[in-house]
Design brief:
about 240 residues; Beta-barrel_OMP_2; mainly beta; Porin; ten-stranded antiparallel β-sheet
Length: about 240
């Protein structure tokens, strides 16, 4: 038997055991209010809205000349990150609950600049450590054996733990891209509640997008060509209750 068939067989056997076994889940659903913790892997990148004249070389008034060539592209590559957080859940009905999962997020974001002169090409990272406080609604299916499917969606507010200081004496080409310290986003996704004897585990996939522009506009070579930045996230979570 080759490896893909063996993995499919293993998955089928595991799902069959989960559906047919009688697990309690540690009473995670029995109370109106319950708690837990979560781990999350995420990928983030920017949706970039450029200014009409974004290709224009950057002119440095202090030295009275252009310090970059014409831009040919600005892109954002997906960058990984992770979060750790806690869960507070309130059951509204058998199939509907409201929940919040405050988390500490460690993630970097990246912007890539390509110029007409290749030697000027540059990558700029936006280093970020944020606290996120989401408020989500979770709509669950009826329980089938030891599994429930669910949809989840809502909004969250993100706040930078520390805001970097601006060095006014730093050369323009060394300046960093900066984001707003606080911003709101929406999230939507789906997952499964899987019940074991003493706990409930919920693998979940969500997508999120910032409601508004997260860019701090500054007259620097890397900020000036951009009109707006919107943060896009794809998140895979494991919740334990």
């Amino acid at each position: 038997m080759n490896l893909p068939k063996a993995l499919l067989l293993f998955a089928a056997l595991l799902f069959s055991r989960l559906v047919n076994a009688q697990a309690w889940g540690g009473g995670a659903d029995d109370n109106k209010v319950s708690f837990g913790f979560s781990f999350q892997y995420l990928n983030q990148n920017y949706k970039i809205v450029k200014k009409p004249d974004w290709r224009t070389p950057f002119y440095d008034a202090e030295i009275n000349r252009n310090i970059t060539d014409s831009l040919t592209s600005i892109t954002s590559r997906s960058s990984p990150g992770f979060t750790v957080g806690f869960i507070t859940r309130y059951r509204l009905s058998e199939n509907l609950e409201v929940r919040t999962t405050p988390a500490l997020v460690f993630a970097d974001r990246e912007l890539n600049y390509t110029y007409k002169t290749p030697s000027q090409n540059a990558n700029r990272q936006v280093q970020s450590t944020t606290v996120e406080i989401p408020l989500l609604l979770k709509l669950r299916s009826d329980k089938i054996g030891n599994v429930r499917a669910y949809l989840v969606g809502g909004a969250k507010y993100s706040m930078e733990v520390s805001k970097g200081q601006v060095d006014e004496n730093e050369a323009p080409l060394q300046r960093k891209i900066r984001n707003n310290r606080g911003f709101a986003s929406y999230e939507a996704g789906f997952g499964f509640d899987i019940y074991f004897e003493y706990f409930k585990m919920s693998p979940e996939i969500k997508v999120g997008n910032s409601f508004g522009n997260v860019l701090i506009a500054e007259n620097t070579p890397f900020s000036n060509p951009i009109s707006k930045l919107f943060l896009h996230s794809i998140m895979f979570s494991l919740h334990f209750e």
